[in-house]
Amino acid sequence: MKRSMNKLDITFILSIAVSALMAQPRIDVDTKKINELLPNFFFQSFNVSPVTKEAFNSIGVCYTGEGKIVYVSDKPFLTVPSVNNRYKAFVFDMVSNETSRLDTRNLCDIDNNNYNIAGITVNDSNTFMIAAMNDYRTNEFMAESRIILSHIDLSYGFSQCATPPFVQLGYTYTQPFFDSKEDYLYFASDIDGGMGGLDIYRVKMLGPNLWGEVEAIDEINTINNDVYPFVDGDGRLYYSTLTGKNGFDVFCYYKGLNRPIRLPSPINSRLDDLNFVQIGEKDAFITRTSGNSQSTVIYRLLAF
Description:
By secondary structure, the protein is mainly β.
C-alpha cells in the first residue's frame, strides 16, 4: 500500500534540494585563465579616443539607443557665470561624433539651473528616466552633497515626476543604471547597512513608480567606494572600486564566481577608471581621470 507524502516529507526533500544547490562549487577565479572568465569583447584590439576634453569634468555615460549616449559634465553652456560649473546633461552622437545639450524642457528639476545632474538612466523603450540630482545651493561639492533619485515617466508625451518610495532622506543615491532585461535599478548609495563609503544596491521595478525591497550586492561591496554599476545583456555586473595600487579600477562579477574579476587593459589603466559601459560587440566607453588627476575624461573604445 502506497504511503502519501506528508508536509514533513516535502519539507525534507526541499531542504535537500536547496542544500544541493547551495553546495554547488563556485568558479575559482584564481585557477582559470582570464579569457575563460570574460567574454571575447575584452580580448580584441581597441582604438581608444577621447570624447570629452580635459578642461572639464565629464562622466555618467548612459546609452539611450539610436547611436547616442547621454553623459553629465560641468562644461560651460551659457554666458551666465552663475549657471556655469553645474553638472548638466549632454548628448554625444556616435555616428557624427558631435555633442549637444540634452533637451531638458519639461523634465522636472533636470531643467532647473539650480540643480546638478549626477547621472541619468533610461529603460530600453525610453518611456521612463531615473535621474540623480542635487541642489547646488545646499552644497556645491558634489562628492559631499546629498544626491537623490527622481523617477520621470515619459510614456504619456509629457513628464510626470516623483521621488521613488525607497529613497530615504539624508542619504546619497547616485549613479543609476536600469537593467531593462530584468527590471532592476542599480545605484550607489551610503544608506545604513553597507560595507562602508558608497556601496552598490539594486531594487526591482514592479510597476509604474512601484518598487520592491532594496538589495545590497554583498558579493562585490567593500569598505571602499564601490561605484558606477552597469549590467550587460548577459547579466554580468561591471562596476568600479577603489584599489590600493591604481586608484579606481573596473571589475566584473556574475553568478558563480568566488570573487570579482579585474578587467584587463585597455579598460583599466594606471589612472582612475570609472563608468565602464559596453555597447554591442565592438563599442564601449570608459571614464578616466586626466594625467594630472584634475578632471575626468570620457573615452570611446572601438574594437577592430
